[in-house]
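Translate structure to sequence.
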């Protein structure tokens, strides 16, 4: 079977080079699905909570509506490309191919890319380790549900193994909501850093073509009821393990 996780990921990447992001994510998935169909292999496609866009109807349920901004805002090209990938998955599923979709929610953990991926957890940990200012974007009150990598993997494997998952999309995430400001405080505390928290306008971080998602929370009942998925690792515990790893592996 095929677990298709390869993609252009990370808001910073997408905003810096939308063309590359769109082509990688659409063409790549098209090729994987075409070949899976040809050789008749079961597929799990790694999608994203970005699918829901800036919808304010939280928690996000798998079949709820997607709310996106203008096509002039590059950020939404990622959500759109991954949504087209999901449509392709469902279209192949309608032709009989065994396909399932997982939607990840801010996955983090050991081996998180220090620079390339640009996620908030990696950024804050490396800033804290260098005692540099922690760059909290906007007012810091936007929220995310951070999911420890072991939970993400367990959910992904359940989707790949269970019959009930076929032809379905599942939110795979932790449903505990945390503000970005609180995340910054936790990381400073857990690293024992002298860093100060600073607020950085979105425009300074991503340029003018940017809009953020205010709150992002998964509804995980479907994954729980059909597959027996529950997230097990809470944020403070996951951050401790991630920081332990980063201390050995990040450049200071
Ligand atoms: N963020 C931040 N400082 C950073 C990087 C990200 O405040 O150095 C914020 C970002 O603006 C967003 C949240 O953290 O509100 C999560 O960003 P990330 O790029 O990790 O993932 P997203 O959920 O936006 O895909």
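Result:
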């Amino acid at each position: 079977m095929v677990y298709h996780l390869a993609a252009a990921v990370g808001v910073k990447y997408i905003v810096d080079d939308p063309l590359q992001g769109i082509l990688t994510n659409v063409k790549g998935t098209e090729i994987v699905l075409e070949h899976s169909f040809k050789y008749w292999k079961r597929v799990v496609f790694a999608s994203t909570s970005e699918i829901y866009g800036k919808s304010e109807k939280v928690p996000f349920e798998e079949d709820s509506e997607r709310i996106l901004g203008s096509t002039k805002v590059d950020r939404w090209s990622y959500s759109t490309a991954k949504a087209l990938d999901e449509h392709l998955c469902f279209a192949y599923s309608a032709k009989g191919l065994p396909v399932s979709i997982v939607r990840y929610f801010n996955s983090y953990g050991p081996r998180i890319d220090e620079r390339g991926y640009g996620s908030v957890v990696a950024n804050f940990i490396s800033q804290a380790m260098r005692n540099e200012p922690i760059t909290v974007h906007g007012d810091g009150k936007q929220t995310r549900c951070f999911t420890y990598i072991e939970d993400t993997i367990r959910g992904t494997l359940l989707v790949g193994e269970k019959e009930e998952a076929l032809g379905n999309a599942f939110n795979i995430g932790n449903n505990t909501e945390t503000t970005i400001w609180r995340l910054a405080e936790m990381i400073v505390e857990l690293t024992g850093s002298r860093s100060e928290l600073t607020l950085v306008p979105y425009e300074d971080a991503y340029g003018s073509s940017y809009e953020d998602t205010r709150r992002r929370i998964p509804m995980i009942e479907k994954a729980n009821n059909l597959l027996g998925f529950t997230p097990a690792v809470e944020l403070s515990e996951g951050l401790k393990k991630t920081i332990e790893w980063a201390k050995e592996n990040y450049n200071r």
